[in-house]
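This section describes the prediction task in plain terms. A model, or a person checking by hand, is given the sequence of a single protein chain and must write out its three-dimensional structure as a string of tokens. No templates, partner chains or ligands are provided. The sample shown here is typical of the held-out split.
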Amino acid sequence: MTRSLDDHTIVEACRAGQTEAFGALVLRYQERLYQTLLRLCGSSEDARDVLQDTFLRAYEKLDQFQGDSSFYTWVYRIGVNLALSGHRRRRARISLGRVGDHEGGALEEVPDESPEADPTYHLERAEREQIVGTALSQLGPEHRAVIVLKDFDGRRYEEIAAILNVPVGTVRSRLHRARCELRDRLRCLIDEE
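The expected answer:
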């Protein structure tokens, strides 16, 4: 039933006492939000903790949701703010994500020329992801946030400004500085190898 309803209707149902309806919002948005929080927090454990606390806080403050923005933008802002505030005073940890599944199968007579066919492809990709993750975790929280929101999530400047509650000009300058700093950190990490 709640799957076909829009967010505003579900929020109103929750406010009217149908608390189980909030689960539909969690199911609808948890995976998208988790991916952003994972990049901001640096570890899946911390991202899951922040995700859980985000939806808990959203439920507790549901009466403050005005509907000026979409529910997802509102809950996204809560999650990003919790992650940036150093929620639970954690230090970002780098976790090597799943490299990818390799399906076994019969050998083909026609050679596969795609980059994924190279036996070192997945290893090199995991190594690159780890280097980028390390460099990203070394950025300050404001710079890490704008990089993740713009370059990983594809958010517009106006959306980022609304989420971080700063002017668009501040977003642009932080993004420029963050990209320069990230480039320098990546160069240093690559040179170390």
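For orientation: Confidence is low (pLDDT under 50) at residues 87-110.
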